[in-house]
Amino acid sequence: MAKYGLIGRNIGYSFSKTFFSIKFEKENRQDTYHNFDIESLEQFPEILAKHDDLKGLNVTIPYKESIIPKLDRLHKDASEIGAVNTIKISRKGKLIGYNTDHYGFAKALANLLPLKDKTALILGTGGASKAIAFVLEAMDFDYHFVSRTEAEQTLTYDALNRQCIQSHFLIVNCTPLGTFPDVHEFPNIPYQFLTSDHVLFDLIYNPRETEFMKRGFAKGARVSNGLKMLEHQAKKAWSIWKS
């Protein structure tokens, strides 16, 4: 019997525990999956000490980047992306960081292609957005990050005018805006400029239909939540833990 879990803050919304618990039950495994909801990464060593039978962890908001210095080694993709969402704990207790978000996003995005043009806006600049950029870079997309604060190669929300929206056909929400229980929140983009040529991809999966998605759908855009991405990245995480 092995133990796995999720590290994050305010993670009651997460479906990861449900996903793995169902998987373990279907496969008659005695393994367990736990939510480790912590206010600070200073509590991370306590979790490792208390649960010495841990074999693997998932990592979510807001620790995908800040967890890196606490790991012993990074897989090449995680190092290049600069964010970790999966940790394998070796037999010798070494913590190895991986990123399976990019795999999950690529698999989920494939069902929404082709687009009118390979142009994208990535809403948010956290750890998840880096995995999205990694995929879009590999697929030769022209993309920009969007943030509330101005930075190099990053647009502000105020800069999203008609021309900008109508020349970027994929818009990916990597912010937590709209996550349960705050389901009425949404990224502040000019939805009135969306068209049927657009695809809105929300990494959020709880609720299944976010306000971001609803507003895009109302303008004829194709929309997707992050559930398929979650499933694909979770399966990839499992294959890493068992390798």
Beta-strand proportion = 15-25%
The global form is: globular
Oligomer: single chain
Strand order in the largest sheet: 2-1-3-5-6-4
Largest sheet: 6 strands, mixed
Taking the alpha carbons of the first and last residues, their distance comes to: 16 Å
Q: What is the SS-derived class?
A: alpha/beta
Helicity, as a percent range = 25-40%
- Taking pLDDT < 50 over at least 5 consecutive residues as the criterion, the unreliable ranges are none
Gyration radius (Cα, Å) is 18 Å
Question: What average pLDDT do the residues reach?
Answer: 96
> Number of helical runs?
8
**Structure summary, number of beta strands:** 12
Order of helices and strands: EHEHEEHEEHEHEEHEEHEH
Describe the structure.
- This protein is of the alpha/beta class and 243 residues long.
- 30% of the residues lie in helices and 22% in strands.
- The protein has helices spanning 16-26, 44-50, 76-81, 101-109, 127-138, 162-165, 211-218, 227-242; strands spanning 3-8, 32-37, 54-59, 73-74, 86-89, 95-98, 119-123, 142-147, 154-156, 170-173, 199-202, 222-224.
- The strands form 2 sheets. Strands 2-1-3-5-6-4 form a 6-stranded mixed β-sheet, with helices on both faces.
- α4 (101-109) packs across α5 and α4 (101-109) crosses α8 (227-242).
- It is globular and about 55 Å long.
- The two termini are 16 Å apart.
